[in-house]
Amino acid sequence: MRECLAQAMRMITKLSRSGMAVLALGVILSGCAANEAPVVSDSPVATNTNTNTAPALQGTLVGGGASSQTAAQEAWRAGFQTTYSAVTVDYDPTGSGTGRSSFSSGGFAFAGTDDAFSVEEAAGAFAGCSAGTGLVEIPVYISPIAVAFNLPDVPTLNLDPATIAKIFAGKIKSWDDKAIAAANPGVKLPNTAITAVHRSDKSGTTGNFTDYLAETASAEWTWGAVEQWPEKLAGEAADKTQGVREAITSAAGAIGYLDASQAADLGTVAIKVGSDYVQHSAEGAAAAVAASKLETGRAATDIVFDLDRKQTTSKAYPLVLVSYLVACGQYQDANTAELVRTYFEHAVSTAGQQAAANQAGSAPLNSELTSLVSDAISKIK
Amino acid sequence: MPPPVANVLKSRADADEWRNLINDRPRGLDRRRRITNKVALGAITAAFCLAIAPLVSVLWTVVSAGLNRIDVEFFTQSMRGVIGEGGGALHAIMGTIQITLAAAVISVPVGILAAVYLVEYGRGAFARTLTLLVDVMTGIPSIVAGLFAFALFSLAFGPGVRAGVAGAVALSLLMTPVVIRSAEEMLRLVPTELREASQALGAPKYRTITDVVLPTAASGITAGVMLGISRIVGETAPLLLVAGFTDSMNYNLFSGRMASLPVFIYSQWQNKGVDAAAYDDRAWSAALTLIAFVFVLNLASRMANRFLGAKAR
After folding, report:
1. pLDDT tens digits, residue range A273-331?
2. Which CATH number fits domain B70-312: 3.40.190.10, 3.90.870.10, 1.10.3720.10, 2.120.10.30?
3. Does B70 reach chain A within 8 Å, measured CB to CB?
4. Are A162 and A75 contained in the same domain?
5. pLDDT tens, A56-104?
């Protein structure tokens, strides 16, 4: 009898102890996140008393697409969600191709893409938009694409477009090849085999890179400007920007192309522009875009660059990526339209562009482009 | 009762016989047996070490890399508005708990009732088909479950729909067969005599099941449920597909994206900003949290086993 009682007591103590732990855990976890303002859904005005000018925006905005924009989007979302605490913005870095198709099918309210919709595609039907209202496409993110490589003790290499094309086409197989050595006097090149890394997914970065090769080295690069890497070419395939980075970092002798913001600790190629070799930089990218013209034959809200890859502007870096944000001309849902418009305005604002430059090393839009883009954004309804 | 060995050996004749037996044993055979024993023991130990090595290595890596960000901030903040360093995984932890509980709420009743049917009622072709289907379901790749939930919710709510409950539906597809199988085993272990005794006392079959069979098997069933939860809590693919990921808290299972720990790990690794180390640290810490989560679940399952087992006796 006494034994039984003791056992019961022990059981109760054990239970209450574990119960207490569960309770404590519950208290810790049930609270709102310390960095988030509590959302007061029934009185939205209360959440932004400190920003008198801002209208009471509410809701969730979901977009996605170009993985090159990831870092910039993070900066924009952080700034935007601080101003509008009742709004949640999500960005899925699924790649430009998926981003555009999800936007077409209505899965995303807006898309980020490194390659704009073609004129025919833009005239088509979009599930989330009112029929026949057209698209708003604006450049928001100008960033150099770095050709990065992994060779111990070699921080930079000079290469001309033809040599880069040959490397990625698998015609140059070793780092001590004559073509590479000729452009890099004094650099001790190992006889390591070259592993050319490319994107396995349909990618805007690939589109811009192959466009550059097709324009500047048409004799060596015969596959044209394509978003999907040509199947016939050998080399290592890697998923998204991060996969390419990982592949280059992990194998000596690897070379690949990726958004310059992700190439910080890798060796990068100075590409030949005119008679000079130019390293990637935000300023060089901005100069290359400034010297390019807008595509003609598009609507006023459809601002797309026809990048001049062959230019020889001093200090310009024409291997540049211009990434766009895409929205409907008119949304079926008025609140979504409001959210998209305000979010886009934030992205192209001076603060937004500066935040992106700090976070992702992109080149801020110049004032001329900003006013053009702002006009287009104001047409979203 | 047989006499103790000492008594047997007391008689001189017996002792002689034993000695003869031992001495007559061929020496070669004895040695061969000893060598075989040593070799087998060595092989088993080596296999054990081989099996345990990756486990220890993974655990060591996760713990040493994950401890960097196990701090208060990690458990009290979400990733909303965080650039680079700082931030936490509270939104993912809450999401994992909610989605897992919702999946359990769907799977446990279905699983236990199905098991009761199979053990107590099911006869013939239908029961055999059901058993076969459950076996097939155990082998479903998780991404297929995710695709099922994605198709289901897309058809109902349009493309691009993401919700915690869709993730729960996908996970319940993976959890249900585990619950059925383990509950079935446990119910079969309940002695037939108990059922017969209950029915002999005049209890109808349903009372026998609810008052005798289920309580007897309760501890085993609970362990099975915990096993099922451990099975699904680390699933990434279906949640990535249908629950999506977000930086913000979301307590509403039925609307909007909901983060979860596995998806948090994936997105932190995949979508690094410029300060890559901060993202890696968060991913490791989330991995450690997830492992700790599963560990606690296993402990809870053992405790439930002991507690409920005692009650049933």
Report:
1. 988 899 999 899 999 998 888 988 888 889 999 888 988 888 899 999 999 999 999 99
2. 1.10.3720.10
3. no
4. yes
5. 788 889 999 988 888 899 999 999 998 898 899 999 888 888 899 999 9
Pairing assessment for the beta strands A293-294 and A276-278 based on DSSP bridges: unpaired
Which residues, in sequence order, are CB contacts of A252 under 8 Å at separation 6+? A150, A151, A152, A192
Residue A49 included in any domain: no
| Interface contact flag, A262 B90, Cβ < 8 Å | no
Q: In percent, how much of chain B has pLDDT > 90?
A: 59
The dihedral built from the CA positions of residue B284, B285, B288 and B293, taken in this order, carries a sign that is negative
Quote the pLDDT of residue B27: 63
- Of all residues in chain A, the percent with pLDDT exceeding 90 is 41
CB neighbours of residue B311 within 10 Å: 11
Question: How far separated are the first and last CA of chain A, in Å rounded?
Answer: 79
Please indicate if any CB of chain A lies within 8 Å of the CB of B94.
yes
Report the gap between the CA of B90 and the closest CA in chain A (Å): 7
* In the predicted structure, residue B271 carries a pLDDT above the cut 90: no
- Does pLDDT of B220 surpass 50? yes
Query: Which residue among B76, B248, B250 places its CB closest to the CB of A34?
Result: B76
- Do the chains contact at B94 and A28, CB–CB below 8 Å? no
Q: Using CA atoms, how far apart are residues A272 and B267, in angstroms rounded to an integer?
A: 36
Report the pLDDT value the prediction gives residue B304, as an integer from 0 to 100: 77
What's the pLDDT tens digit per position in B131-161?
999 999 998 999 999 999 999 999 998 887 8
Q: How many residues does chain A have?
A: 381
Report the predicted TM-score, pTM, of the whole model to 2 decimal places. 0.79
Task: Give the domain extent around A178.
Answer: 61-381
Q: Which residues, in sequence order, are CB contacts of A253 under 8 Å at separation 6+?
A: A150, A151, A175, A190, A192, A193, A194, A195
Q: Do residues A227 and A206 touch, judged by C-beta distance below 8 A?
A: yes
Neighbours of B206 (CB within 10 A): 10
Give how far Cα A256 sits from Cα of A245, A249, A266, A288, Å: 8, 10, 11, 21
The shortest CB-CB distance from B83 to any of A34, A105, A359 is to A359
The alpha-carbon gap from A13 to the nearest alpha carbon of chain B, in Å, equals 13
Do residues A27 and A69 both lie within one domain?
no
**Residues 14-53 of chain B whose Cβ lies under 8 A from any Cβ of chain A:** none
Q: Are residues A9 and A122 in the same domain?
A: no
Question: Which residues, 6 or more positions from A39, have their beta carbon under 8 angstroms from its beta carbon?
Answer: A47, A85, A86
Choice among A22-26, A273-277, B15-19, B166-170 with the minimum mean pLDDT: A22-26
- What does the alpha-carbon distance between residue A112 and residue A98 come to, in Å, rounded to a whole number? 10
pLDDT of residue B13: 67
Query: Can you give the CATH number for the domain in which A180 is found?
Result: 3.40.190.10
Query: Helix or strand or coil: residue A381?
Result: coil
Interface check B77 vs A, CB under 8 A = yes
The verdict on a CB contact (< 8 Å) between B245 and A90 is yes
Instruction: Please report the number of interchain residue pairs, chain A to chain B, with beta-carbon separation below 8 angstroms.
Output: 105
Q: List chain B residues with CB under 8 Å of A78.
A: 80-83
